[in-house]
């Protein structure tokens, strides 16, 4: 059984890429790439099922709801199957197919489910498997290819006690449903060759299938008769109430029993559709689109509405940025060589903005900039947001609307130069962007001489800075392909990573560049490819590279001391042996929370470290959390709530953390949970604190049981007397004093054992 994480986690997946639909009773179930939701058209209620409920978070390929067993069955491209039981709320992970060594990973894909007599017939890329819904166990597997070979099955239908299988290149194969020896490939017959058969169904008391050249055929034993030419790529087929619905890329048609068209949908849409699936309840038609989600219309009305749950535009998260009660995310990309064209070309996906738990999505058509890779929110005007494009420059957004696109035509931001010294036209690669305390925006640009710029948003004035002073020209275009995120300290000094030039630093007050580079004899970096940097609450610079982690305890020293070295963090493993923390692990992101603890994003999940890195508080992976992928691309912390967002290639989940940012007063101090009841075994959090507040906890008689100085806006207490025995039932006083001792606060915690 998979774990339910709904108590401490939330999902923020995209529900706009619908890959499969199953309708049953008054509900339609829609698979949205890595999660599922149900929609009731009568009540308008949408219910989500995701990794929070124990689903796997992998790419969904097929779904089925069994009304007799009251379970939702979810199949994945990997062959994994989840069974969600509505009666118990439990989710079962069925791993039998994924562990079959005789089946290649590509052939394990689940293509479709068909329920008959309490059994699921599962169409896969290797053949057919039986799954019993009453005991949730597998039965026989049928390899129906020539001589018993593996043959992919796209879809199954049962008619007059005969199983018909639409196969991948093997026409339609059929056999008697009640034959006790179906595992014998000789029991399966083949209809005259139709090649690849994508869809099969029963219509007007005949088995019909889509075969050769997207033609519709009537299937008889040993023969197939063409009925009509469908004239288009067919993605789905559904029969409901004497109507045959055919889903094309951009159109849905309904045919009556005479094969006359009686229903058309998709000709007057305000977007270019990519329909993949369909479901019908009474006269209500639900169409799944690959980009716009679940659309709902009716046979009598061509109007439609979007009914997918709110979410970001996509699940492929590249970068996020959080401020109190808001989150921005973009979906661009580049590979390890900072090539935005790798992996299928430029990403044209727009941006998404979560504000007060409502999503505002800005499509690519409005932004008109490819490969958005970074975000900077103006702290003086949070409605003004800048997005960097690793191809088209810098986008300015005000109140969720695009107001400017800065590029080589209207700003000093330059087009990139290739390895031979030639200008690449219309290719302006801005990446790291950040605001300083004075409200000036800073940004770096890949593969240009003036690789750093500043922008005053009020005046629109730019300044550019020649980075060849710190990265020589003779290596810049051939060895350094790009820069990463920028962080800015309280003095206005900038720090950012690079492809092969270590940490780059710039001091605006002296107009001076500096660099931290090299191994033990130089800057003591594990690798000169620095992926990200972060400044903690003590102004220490944490440095992530493709091969590990370092800390620069006095980052400003980089401008005056050419021998500055970063330090590794040495910890003791379970056997008491000293070792380097996160050695040889590629670091995707480092975030600092309100308690000065560190969140580290890696390809092995997310690590939560104590402020000095000596203690690993959490290591979230797909095994012990609802992370949909162990590859974590970005982490963001909402300092007001303590919520931690994890961005992955498979979507966003959020952990309801407790570390909040420091406050200006003790006005909002609280302790929770309060009271602490007998069945609670977690930590008690006291938040709303000022920086470096002294917190003393005493019993009612004044005996001190715990004391701590806050490093952010909160502390946690394990309800033990200085880490020893658990304190007894009773009321405990919390005495709080500010660092300057000018402000005090008293609150109470009741503990019931």
UniProtKB/TrEMBL annotation:
Gene3D superfamilies: YVTN repeat-like/Quinoprotein amine dehydrogenase. InterPro entries: PorZ_N, Quinoprotein_ADH-like_sf, Reg_prop, WD40/YVTN_repeat-like_dom_sf. Residues 28-189 form the PorZ N-terminal beta-propeller domain. It comes from the Bacteria. This is ABC transporter substrate-binding protein. It comes from Mesonia mobilis.
